[in-house]
């Protein structure tokens, strides 16, 4: 069997345990049917614990069961059902409030946390929320005062019974319309449920900026917790650690410890270095034994000149020394704990000594990583003397290094310029040689072509002259043969015979033609 509770934070759909708690479910269903829960406010809300309602007066001391409405004040409460045992094991369980002596009325609460076992033997579970967990989360996030009363009213506006398996008791008069709330019921002295809340109203511009910055910081912290970079949203950096940046690379841990030790006892001073080259990354963390010394150093040392560098000092925002103990168990400081002015044991007993034994002193650090660092003519100076000599030595080293770097750059630039000129000359010579080779190649080719052409032409001329000579020789031979034939007697007789035949044929041919014409 289900009931819908419409609230100002959203709708809650509730399933009732009819078989396990029949009497309690009857009481709850008939009260919903009589509209007795309309405009009841959640007068008690504890985050991750429970939210309580069902009292028409809104004080937590009123309310009566359906049997009190039917049979009078002697039946205002009824005895709770204890078997079977239902436990408060998860959020969203509905349980009737025990008003004393295991008696129940109209008030009930909804659990907002897990494993509330200490409520099992005192209060009676009769249902659970199956839909509307977003509304439960909104109720859980409500802002309350020290008595767990919300500053803005959260009310049940209406109840809808989806199915009622119980018949109505005799004498129960069901209202046709929802009753109007009384003035005393609405006048709770709190912000109305439908009233808009403006967090910025009545605040100055600085307060508004601070509020916005706080919300943005909380949102960023939530994101860092989700990605695993922050152990907890509420994790805050230690208040006794100072962050120093823009340091000179030649500044050492001992230098910072001597300079900052006038503000108080320094627990740890460490310049962060590169893991491979062990060169300074130009920022450091200085840990004091109390926040007061850290605050004094912050106000006095910001923008101070150290080793010809203007340093910047701020409170550390690093939480790398916070160790997460697990969900719901908080965090602790690795090697220490938060400062407590009422206790003298600022550090965990024995923990600081173990951490100090793991750390490397400045002397041991210089000996161990000497091969990885540039050799310097450095001597440990006294705390109060030798500052000028140290600065002069350091300035001399810096001047020499600067001069060497400048000379090295000049030599490198001169060498590059010379190489460039040499490359230019070599390129020009090579191009000149290539042009000369191409010119000679063209001239050789032209001479070869001219010689071949002249040779071919002389051959042609020789062949022509030889042909003409052969022709003349052939004509002379023919003429000689012709003359010889004409001189021979046989040839002359034959010619005479031929001549005679021609004359006879010439004389006889006209006559034949004349006879033919006469015919």
From TrEMBL:
<feature type="region of interest" description="Disordered">
    <location>
        <begin position="345"/>
        <end position="519"/>
    </location>
</feature>
<feature type="domain" description="PPIase cyclophilin-type">
    <location>
        <begin position="10"/>
        <end position="161"/>
    </location>
</feature>
<keyword id="KW-0697">Rotamase</keyword>
<keyword id="KW-0539">Nucleus</keyword>
<dbReference type="InterPro" id="IPR002130">
    <property type="entry name" value="Cyclophilin-type_PPIase_dom"/>
</dbReference>
<dbReference type="InterPro" id="IPR012677">
    <property type="entry name" value="Nucleotide-bd_a/b_plait_sf"/>
</dbReference>
<feature type="compositionally biased region" description="Basic and acidic residues">
    <location>
        <begin position="345"/>
        <end position="366"/>
    </location>
</feature>
<dbReference type="Pfam" id="PF00076">
    <property type="entry name" value="RRM_1"/>
</dbReference>
<feature type="compositionally biased region" description="Basic and acidic residues">
    <location>
        <begin position="374"/>
        <end position="449"/>
    </location>
</feature>
<feature type="compositionally biased region" description="Basic and acidic residues">
    <location>
        <begin position="455"/>
        <end position="500"/>
    </location>
</feature>
<dbReference type="InterPro" id="IPR000504">
    <property type="entry name" value="RRM_dom"/>
</dbReference>
<feature type="compositionally biased region" description="Basic residues">
    <location>
        <begin position="502"/>
        <end position="519"/>
    </location>
</feature>
<dbReference type="GO" id="GO:0003723">
    <property type="term" value="F:RNA binding"/>
</dbReference>
<dbReference type="InterPro" id="IPR035538">
    <property type="entry name" value="Cyclophilin_PPIL4"/>
</dbReference>
<dbReference type="GO" id="GO:0003755">
    <property type="term" value="F:peptidyl-prolyl cis-trans isomerase activity"/>
</dbReference>
<dbReference type="InterPro" id="IPR035979">
    <property type="entry name" value="RBD_domain_sf"/>
</dbReference>
<dbReference type="GO" id="GO:0005634">
    <property type="term" value="C:nucleus"/>
</dbReference>
<dbReference type="Pfam" id="PF00160">
    <property type="entry name" value="Pro_isomerase"/>
</dbReference>
<comment type="similarity">
    <text>Belongs to the cyclophilin-type PPIase family. PPIL4 subfamily.</text>
</comment>
<protein>
    <recommendedName>
        <fullName>Peptidyl-prolyl cis-trans isomerase</fullName>
        <ecNumber>5.2.1.8</ecNumber>
    </recommendedName>
</protein>
<feature type="domain" description="RRM">
    <location>
        <begin position="240"/>
        <end position="318"/>
    </location>
</feature>
<keyword id="KW-0694">RNA-binding</keyword>
<comment type="function">
    <text>PPIases accelerate the folding of proteins. It catalyzes the cis-trans isomerization of proline imidic peptide bonds in oligopeptides.</text>
</comment>
<dbReference type="InterPro" id="IPR029000">
    <property type="entry name" value="Cyclophilin-like_dom_sf"/>
</dbReference>
<keyword id="KW-0413">Isomerase</keyword>
<dbReference type="InterPro" id="IPR035542">
    <property type="entry name" value="CRIP"/>
</dbReference>
């Amino acid at each position: 069997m289900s009931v819908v509770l419409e609230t100002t934070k959203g709708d809650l759909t509730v399933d009732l345990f009819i078989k396990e708690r029949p009497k309690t479910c009857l009481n709850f269903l008939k009260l919903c049917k009589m509209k007795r829960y309309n405009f009841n406010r959640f007068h008690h809300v504890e985050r991750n614990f429970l939210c309580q309602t069902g009292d028409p007066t809104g004080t937590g001391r009123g309310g009566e069961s359906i049997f009190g409405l039917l049979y009078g004040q002697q039946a205002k409460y009824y005895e709770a059902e204890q078997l079977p045992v239902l436990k408060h094991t998860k959020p969203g369980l509905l349980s009737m409030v025990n008003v004393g002596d295991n008696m129940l009325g109209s008030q009930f609460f909804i659990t907002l946390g897990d494993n509330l076992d200490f409520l099992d033997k005192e209060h009676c579970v009769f249902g659970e929320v199956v839909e509307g967990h977003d509304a439960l989360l909104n109720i859980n996030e409500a802002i309350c005062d020290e008595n767990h009363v919300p500053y803005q009213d959260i009310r049940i506006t209406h109840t809808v019974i989806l199915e009622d398996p119980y018949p109505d008791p005799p004498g129960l008069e069901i209202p046709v319309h929802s009753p109007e709330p009384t003035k005393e019921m609405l006048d709770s002295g709190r912000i109305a449920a439908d009233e808009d809340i403006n967090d910025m109203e009545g605040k100055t511009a600085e307060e508004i900026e601070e509020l916005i910055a706080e919300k943005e910081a909380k949102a960023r912290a939530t994101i860092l917790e989700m990605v695993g970079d922050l152990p907890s949203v509420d994790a805050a950096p230690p208040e006794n650690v100072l962050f120093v940046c823009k340091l000179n690379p030649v500044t050492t841990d001992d230098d910072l410890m001597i300079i900052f030790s006038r503000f108080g006892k320094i627990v740890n001073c460490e310049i962060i270095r590169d893991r491979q080259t062990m060169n300074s990354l130009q920022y450091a963390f200085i840990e004091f034994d109390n926040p007061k010394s850290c605050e004094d150093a912050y106000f006095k040392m910001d923008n101070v000149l150290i080793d010809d560098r203007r340093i910047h000092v701020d409170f550390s925002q690093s939480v790398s020394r916070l160790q997460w103990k697990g969900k719901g168990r908080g965090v602790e400081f690795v090697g220490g704990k938060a400062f407590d002015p009422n206790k003298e044991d600022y550090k965990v007993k024995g923990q600081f000594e173990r951490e100090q034994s793991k750390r490397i002193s400045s002397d041991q650090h210089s000996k161990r990583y000497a091969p990885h660092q540039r050799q310097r003519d450095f001597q440990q100076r006294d705390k109060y003397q030798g500052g000028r000599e140290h600065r002069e030595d350091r300035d001399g080293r810096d001047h020499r290094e600067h001069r060497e770097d400048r000379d090295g750059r000049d030599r490198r630039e001169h060498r590059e310029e010379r190489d460039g000129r040499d490359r230019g000359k070599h390129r020009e010579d090579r191009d000149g040689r290539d042009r000369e080779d191409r010119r000679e190649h063209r001239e050789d080719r032209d001479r070869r072509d001219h010689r071949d052409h002249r040779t071919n032409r002389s051959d042609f001329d020789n062949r022509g002259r030889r042909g003409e000579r052969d022709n003349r020789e052939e004509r002379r031979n023919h003429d000689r043969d012709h003359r010889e034939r004409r001189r021979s007697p046989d040839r002359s007789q034959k010619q005479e015979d031929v001549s005679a035949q021609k004359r006879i044929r010439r004389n006889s041919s006209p006559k034949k033609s004349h006879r033919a014409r006469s015919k």
